[in-house]
Design goal:
Elements (H helix, E strand, L loop, with lengths): L12 H9 L10 H17 L6 H22 L5 H17 L10 H10 L5 H8 L7 H14 L6 H4 L5 H11 L4
Helix pairs in contact: 1-3, 2-3, 4-5, 6-9, 7-9
C-alpha cells in the first residue's frame, strides 16, 4: 500500500481508523520506526478526546487499532512485546480515564489482564526462584524478569476494575514476585 506512512501527523482519528482498517494493511511492509510512528500518532489522536467518541467511532477505532498492531507485528515481529505493550498501556489509560463500557472492546479491563498474564515469559515458580538472585543471572534471564515487571505495570492501575476477575489472584501472585525483580 503506497503512502501508508505518509502524513500520519495530519490524519484525524477517523482517518487513522480508516487507514489502518483497510484490507491492504494486512500485507503491508514497513520498518519498526514507521510502525512505531503510526501507533504513536493513532494513540495520540485517540487520547485527545476519547470521551467524545460515539459508539460507531469506538467500533472503528478498535478495529483500526487492532489491525494496525497486528500488521506491525506481522511486518516487524513482536519486537520484545512492543506492540502488545502499546496495546496494554493504551487500554489501561483509556480505562483509567473513561472506565468500563460493555459495548466498547477497548474499554474492557479483562483483556488487559488476560493478555498481560498470557505473555509472561516464564511460569511463576521459576520466576520466583530467579528473582532472589537476579544479579547473578545471564542477560536473557534478566530481560525475561524485567519483561514480567513491564507486563504487570499497565494492569496495576486497573485493580479496582479487576478485583472480581477470575484471574486476579494470578496477577496478585505475580505482584508478590515482582517486588524482587530488577
Amino acid at each position: 500500500m503506497n503512502g501508508l506512512f505518509d502524513d500520519l501527523d495530519r490524519l484525524d482519528l477517523d482517518a487513522h481508523a480508516r487507514r489502518w482498517s483497510a484490507p491492504e494493511v494486512v500485507c503491508a511492509d514497513g520498518s519498526v520506526s514507521q510502525w512505531t510512528a503510526a501507533a504513536q500518532q493513532f494513540a495520540a489522536r485517540l487520547q485527545q478526546a476519547p470521551e467524545r467518541l460515539s459508539g460507531r467511532q469506538w467500533q472503528a477505532v478498535a478495529s483500526g487499532w487492532s489491525a494496525l498492531l497486528a500488521a506491525a507485528e506481522r511486518a516487524t515481529g513482536p519486537q520484545h512485546n512492543e506492540w502488545l505493550l502499546r496495546d496494554l498501556w493504551l487500554g489501561s489509560w483509556l480505562l483509567q480515564k473513561l472506565g468500563r463500557r460493555a459495548e466498547v472492546p477497548l474499554l474492557d479491563p479483562g483483556p488487559v489482564l488476560e493478555r498481560a498474564l498470557d505473555a509472561m515469559p516464564m511460569p511463576p515458580d521459576p520466576a520466583a526462584v530467579l528473582s532472589g538472585h537476579w544479579r547473578e543471572l545471564d542477560r536473557p534471564h534478566v530481560l525475561a524478569l524485567r519483561m514480567i515487571r513491564r507486563l504487570l505495570a499497565p494492569v496495576r492501575p486497573l485493580a479496582h476494575l479487576l478485583a472480581e476477575h477470575p484471574r486476579w489472584g494470578e496477577f496478585e501472585a505475580w505482584e508478590r514476585i515482582a517486588g524482587d525483580l530488577p
